[in-house]
Amino acid sequence: MVERISFHDEIRNNQIKSFFLVIVIFFFFVLLGYVIALALDPGYFFIIMIFSIIFSLSYILITYYNSGKIAIASVKAKEASHTEHRMLYHAVENMSIASGMPMPKVYVMESEQINAFASGRDPKNSVICVTTGALKKLSKGELEGVIAHEMGHVANYDIKFMTLTAVMVGLISIIAQIFLRSLWFRSDRDNRTGIIILVIAVLMAILAPLFAQLVSFAISRKREYSADATAVKFTRYSPGLKNALVKIKKEVVPEKDKKRYSKALAPLFMADPYKKKIQNLFSTHPPIDERIKKLERM
Questions:
Q1: Handedness of CA 95, 145, 82, 266 (dihedral sign)
Q2: Can you give the pLDDT at residue 2?
Q3: What is the rounded distance in angstroms from the CA atom of residue 40 to the CA atom of residue 36?
Q4: Which of 142, 165, 202, 208 is most exposed by smallest CB count within 10 Å?
Q5: Is beta strand 78-79 parallel, antiparallel or unpaired with respect to 116-119?
Q6: pLDDT-derived band of residue 5, with 50, 70 and 90 as boundaries?
Q7: Residue 221 pLDDT more than 80?
Q8: What is the distance between the alpha carbons of residues 39 and 193, in angstroms, rounded to a whole number?
Q9: Adjacency order of strands within the sheet including 116-119
Q10: Distance in angstroms (rounded) separating the CA atoms of residues 260 and 246
Q11: Is residue 150 flagged as an active site residue?
C-alpha cells in the first residue's frame, strides 16, 4: 500500500526547508563579509557594503514592483479574451474562489508547449500567463490544476520570497566583485598571516557567489513542490495537475521555443521551458517524475 502524503505537511515542510536555505545564503553573506573585513581595512569594507546594498536593493526593488509587467512584456503575451479563452477564464475564476484570492489579470502567450507562469508582488497585483499550447492540449481539470499551481505561487508569496533570495545573492556577487577588483589597487601584506587571510578571502569571493546561486536554485525547486501541494489544496483533485505534468513530460520542445524564453525568466514557469534531460544542482525545477510521484500520493 502506497503511503499517502498530506498536502498540508508537504507545504509546511517545503516552506521550512526554503526558509532554512535562505538562512544558508545569509550565512554565506556574513561569512564573506567577515573574511573580506579581515583582509581589508574595516573602514574601507564598510564603504563597499553600503554601496553594494544600495545598488542591489535599488535594482531588485525596481524589478520587484514591476515584475508582472516585465515578465508579460518579455514573452510578448496578450491579455486573454473573455470570449475566445472562456475555459481559461472559468478556470482562473474557479481557482480564485477556491483560494479566496482576488482574480489575477490573465494573459496568453504564443507557444506550442504546455506551460504557464505567475508573477506580481502580491495577490492584489498578480498576473497569470498561459501558453496557447496549454489551452489546446489540456482538459478542463488539467488546466485548473495548472492555474491552481500558479495561484499557489501567488498565495505562498513566492515572488517576494525569491526577491529576498535574489537580493542576498546579488549582494554576495557585488561584494565579491568589488573586493576582487580592489586587489589591483593594493599592495600585498608583508606578514605571513595577512597573506593567508588574503588568499582565503579571494577563494571565498570566488566560491561564495557560486554556492549562493546553487542554494537559490535549491530554493526555487522547493517552491515548485510547495506550489504543487498548494494546487491540490485549492482543487482537492491531484490528478488534474498530475495529468498535466504527464503531458508536459511527453512533449518535445520545438527549436523555435528554445529561443523564445529568456533564461532569466525560465524559473518563473511551471515546468522548465528548456526541458533539460539531465537534472542537476543548477536546475531551477525539480525532476518532473518526482513531482508526479508526490502528486500520486496526495
A1: positive
A2: 54
A3: 6
A4: 202
A5: unpaired
A6: low
A7: yes
A8: 10
A9: 78-79, 105-109, 127-131, 116-119
A10: 23
A11: yes
Average pLDDT over residues 127-146: 94
**Is pLDDT at 174 greater than 80 in this prediction?**
no
Tell which residue, 235, 231, 234, has the closest CA to residue 292.
Answer: 231
Report strand pairing: 105-109 vs 127-131.
Answer: parallel
- Residue 150, pLDDT > 70, answer yes
Which residue carries 545573492 as its cell? 169
Give 44 or 73, the one with higher predicted confidence: 73
* Number of residues that make up the chain: 298
The answer to whether the CB of 260 falls within 8 A of the CB of 269 is: no
pTM: 0.79
CB 167 within 8 A of CB 139: no
CA dihedral 158, 279, 5, 130 (to 10 degrees): 50
**Can you tell me the distance from the alpha carbon of 11 to that of 16, in angstroms, rounded to the nearest whole number?**
9
Q: Which has the closest alpha carbon to 238: 136, 146, 100, 129?
A: 146
Q: Is 11 helix (H, G, I), strand (E, B) or coil?
A: helix
Cell 553594494, residue located: 52
Say which of 10, 112, 144, 150 is annotated catalytic.
150
Check if the beta carbon of residue 119 is closer than 8 Å to that of residue 67: yes
- The structural domains of the chain, ordered by start, are 7-67+159-219 (no CATH), 75-156+225-270 (3.30.2010.10)
Q: Which amino acid, one-letter code, is at 41?
A: D
